[in-house]
């Protein structure tokens, strides 16, 4: 997916927010100047998450802190873990537990969207999940995905955000963890899940977890490690979580099931569905 004009404003706002929250006042203007200089040189044929990677490289170069949102990510994971027993009971009450766990994993994208702006009221999170369990999907390839999941011997599951990763764990429990390799980001970027978040969620004790090699908030194959690429090639089925992975995981001729919520107008236009839509889309 290409970077559009609207993405440039969004990337600039993202960088300004990072500077305002985590950089000392005297570093903010030099940081933004470097960001804007980089943005002027950025190839807009590339997807927007590739420039987010550059924003965080500049940030680490100027500040040295590894994970600016680390504390917020830990809190997000803790909140999701506190809900997990109730969520498992909800799944157990549904006629198709695998589909219920899948829909709940998509709801994780909604939870992240809410956390970004408003914080997380526990009852609101549960209400949102119940809505996802029974709502229509704008693109609904769930029946085919469920059928394929029941047969697949090796599933590659590309995770997205902290907090959400707890719901990914619940879904993987129902897929069959011995058949799953879960890939996370190789370095902190925004609130994307890393090996640290996977460990807090207990995912590393459930299935094989690997870093993808990507330091972007997505999974462009050009940045991925040899280990990830081998898993990607060998998997019977690839599940990609989140909008950033949808924007970056471009593999012509390779089927990928994308599970996400449409959160921005550019992606909304790309997939031709309204903002806020639930997506279970097969590409490739």
UniProtKB/TrEMBL annotation:
SUPFAM superfamilies from the UniProt entry: AF1104-like
Domain named Damage-control phosphatase ARMT1-like metal-binding: residues: 3-276
Protein name (database record): Damage-control phosphatase ARMT1-like metal-binding domain-containing protein
Species of origin: anaerobic digester metagenome
């Amino acid at each position: 997916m290409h970077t559009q004009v609207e993405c440039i404003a969004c990337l600039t706002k993202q960088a300004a927010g990072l500077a305002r929250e985590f950089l000392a006042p005297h570093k903010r203007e030099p940081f933004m100047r470097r960001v804007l200089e980089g943005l002027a040189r950025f190839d807009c044929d590339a997807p927007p998450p590739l420039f987010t990677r550059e924003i965080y490289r500049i940030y680490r170069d100027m500040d040295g802190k590894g994970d600016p949102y680390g504390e917020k990510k830990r809190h997000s994971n803790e909140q999701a873990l506190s809900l997990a027993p109730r969520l498992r009971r909800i799944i157990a009450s549904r006629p198709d537990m695998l589909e219920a766990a899948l829909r709940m994993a998509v709801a994780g994208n909604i939870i992240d969207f809410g956390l970004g702006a408003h914080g997380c009221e526990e009852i609101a999170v549960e209400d949102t999940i119940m809505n996802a369990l029974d709502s229509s999907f704008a693109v609904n390839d769930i029946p085919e995905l469920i059928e394929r999941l029941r047969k697949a011997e090796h599933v590659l599951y590309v995770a997205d955000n902290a907090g959400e990763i707890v719901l990914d764990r619940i879904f993987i429990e129902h897929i069959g963890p011995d058949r799953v390799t879960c890939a996370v980001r190789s370095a902190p970027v925004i609130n994307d899940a890393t090996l640290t978040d996977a460990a807090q969620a207990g995912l590393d004790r459930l299935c094989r977890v690997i870093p993808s090699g990507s330091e972007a908030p997505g999974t462009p194959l050009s940045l991925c490690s040899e280990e990830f690429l081998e898993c990607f090639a060998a998997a019977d089925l690839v599940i990609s979580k989140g909008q950033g992975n949808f924007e970056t995981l471009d593999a012509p001729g390779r089927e990928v099931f994308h599970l996400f919520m449409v959160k921005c107008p550019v992606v909304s236009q790309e997939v031709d569905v309204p903002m806020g839509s639930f997506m279970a889309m097969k590409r490739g």
